[in-house]
């Protein structure tokens, strides 16, 4: 006899009734078997080839589609072990002490990878380092085989001196290693650093040595790709993502439709038109767009009337996406929050308990929305300047992707009416400018109520999406056995190469130590 | 900046908001079709014979048409067979056969002419030029042709040196071609191999360096490696993704609906009811059937709705729930009987019969919406091997239309009765279908298109084809 089914209260998922608890043996834990067993993505490439950029962006994407992913940047481990960077001499292949330290940093990072994947429920670890020698890669493959991890290599190849120079200026000269250097000196030193690696660089060889490995070579910032032996769904998705991203400067503008008649009445969902103020906003938006003076702006709307009315005022072609429609409120559509509280008090309370997973009866949840909106994200990556005129919940989903926000934070992100968010990629992250167009509107934001208790834990199913924030990189990476070698690198002669203006050695060291702990901020990271 | 804005009205069939009083979708700034590309694209196959070019051409065309991009294959071999009525032997393909060369060149010209016609007069968006195209010269001709007319070109080259695979290909699709009607198998194989040799001498593969300005994908050894160069737009990116997900490992896909539901019995559409007693019987019969098939590593997928989950539960194996497999959302008509829809929304009911594929229920979905929703499911089905999909009538029609290459017109009327499993097995260039009725009685839920679809029709005419129910 098939088991009786009940629908769990928050997510409205049908489950066998005896087990109204999270883990269900029959419902398979692996929707489209996203990452089973765990995967280690191994970056490969000379310095300044965009490895860290790719690592962080890919990690953000994977976390947003619900795959717990974390970056392990070996450069950070090295900076922990060698508190002060003196010069490129550290990277010379005949510098035995340094070679030992670097080896141990890599091992420490791999140890942490193992912990993340086996004890912390991670599914994908991104090992961000040059990994330019066969010896190093063979060591990683061995590590993968021993622990039953899949290994996927991403190699970035680029010989365009302009691209390299731009990279160095954007993210290297401002990194902790070059705190005390001026730009020119930093640039010079870094170029010599690259040369240290180049001599021993053995690119992946698809014809012979590496023909059985799974990897993608990204050539000339995405102009060309060589893809070898994709073995599962997650590798296929990663390849698709990498082939769609680009580094052209551009901005993405997110805004909601103008204030609608339903907004004014405090009603949710529905398909009403704009209020007078909403129409005023549409006009203001048109003016704003004109003033931005953009090349080739694409405009996207949902298929709901209020967003289309807003777009119409711009007097330019626009594309309607059903995927951008507001979250479906099911039986609660067009009700006011008061009416919902009156007629469906239990539902009302459940939503506050877990707003991300909560699915309206016969409607949708934020979790459903994220899955629905994923093709829009992929298309946004392909394009350049885009204005997306959408809705509150949808905008929160999109924003969570760009700003690396978790499922917990997403339903409470502030996306007020009549405000445009301008997102511009910069270094490893995203700059946000919030521009209010100065047209009055109601406030539709509901904060999380104070007295709400989290209900029974929700079912995590892998084919339903649950965005995570990319975890903090290991601030204090464990560096066992390295204490005795830590300060060996600091010598007066090497210091002066970098910082002619600094006089006192002791003082400098102290300053640098202080600075290096302050500088664990997103943009300044390098190898 | 004017504060006066044209009022929007919603088109009755597609439920799309457009400016002005007219229901014309023609002149408006908003487009509701996803913009895959802004100009026609020629996909040009490249490769020696028996490298899977026609297989890829047909499969890709089927996929693009299903997702709504009008696509057509132009197979040069067919043009040649029109002109040279009987194939003698491989000597036709010898590079020193001047007369044959002239014929072959003129066939290519005709095919290109037809492609131009397809784009300009038949609203085609993608044309797949299926031929060997193994020389720089031939490819140069195509590139100039496209450049003159503003078409984009994307090359798909299939490279394979595994003799086993090549011989398998020849056995599967060449020996049965019209060319070899009067040959016996061994002779045909020998002749075909000599044919391949004729091409080998002048074959110049696409080159990473020399062809770096072209957009192409090189597929090595049936997908173990790909080289992708200069993808220009969305459609090319989708094509690359599709090609990287398909495989040729033998497998079967089983499609079935949930067991009969309580709402089915009452003749009501949609909703989220449980199985009726007959439905429960079916679930058990399905379990037995699956066991009997002895399928290796079968994956089972269901939707999020109670009736498919109950059916899956009876199998006693792990299964995965996909929201994307949920039945079409009938919006305001959810849980109504057809008689009720006719009574309360006669106009909507008529519009649906007029264009069942594009018709969107008020506050609901259309079959067209369903196809977009199901695309990730299809992509994953391509990646997988043996899969059983337990879904719903409209959803199953969409999936079936993809596998059997059915048009948008045919799709909403495909027969997907309850309590019947369809087993699909890829074969040669298509798909073999076996239908298994598990002998458990169920109501019929199939409603044919009635003869009168006019809005002004009488109730009896509207309800003429409604199947019986309680």
TrEMBL record, chain A:
In the C-terminal section; belongs to the phosphoglycerate mutase family. GO terms for molecular function: 6-phosphofructo-2-kinase activity; ATP binding; fructose-2,6-bisphosphate 2-phosphatase activity. The keyword Lipoprotein does not apply. One of its GO terms (cellular component) is cytosol. One of its GO terms (biological process) is fructose 2,6-bisphosphate metabolic process. The lineage of its organism: Eukaryota, Metazoa, Chordata, Craniata, Vertebrata. PROSITE patterns: PG_MUTASE. InterPro entries: 6Pfruct_kin, 6Phosfructo_kin, His_Pase_superF_clade-1, His_PPase_superfam, P-loop_NTPase, PG/BPGM_mutase_AS. Keywords: ATP-binding, Hydrolase, Kinase, Multifunctional enzyme, Nucleotide-binding, Phosphoprotein, Transferase. The active site is at residues 257, 326. Substrate binds at residues 256-263, 306. Residues 33-249 form the 6-phosphofructo-2-kinase domain. The keyword Transferase applies. This is 6-phosphofructo-2-kinase/fructose-2, 6-bisphosphatase 3-like isoform X2.
From TrEMBL, chain B:
GO terms for cellular component: 6-phosphofructo-2-kinase/fructose-2,6-biphosphatase complex. The keyword Transferase applies. Substrate binds at residues 257-264, 307. InterPro entries: 6Pfruct_kin, 6Phosfructo_kin, His_Pase_superF_clade-1, His_PPase_superfam, P-loop_NTPase, PG/BPGM_mutase_AS. This is 6-phosphofructo-2-kinase/fructose-2, 6-bisphosphatase-like isoform X1. SMART domains: PGAM. Pfam families: 6PF2K (PF01591), His_Phos_1 (PF00300). GO terms for molecular function: 6-phosphofructo-2-kinase activity; ATP binding; fructose-2,6-bisphosphate 2-phosphatase activity. The keyword Transport does not apply. Keywords: ATP-binding, Hydrolase, Kinase, Multifunctional enzyme, Nucleotide-binding, Phosphoprotein, Transferase. The lineage of its organism: Eukaryota, Metazoa, Chordata, Craniata, Vertebrata. The gene is LOC113065511. In the C-terminal section; belongs to the phosphoglycerate mutase family. The active site is at residues 258, 327. Homodimer. Residues 29-250 form the 6-phosphofructo-2-kinase domain. Synthesis and degradation of fructose 2,6-bisphosphate. GO terms for biological process: fructose 2,6-bisphosphate metabolic process; fructose metabolic process. It comes from the Eukaryota.
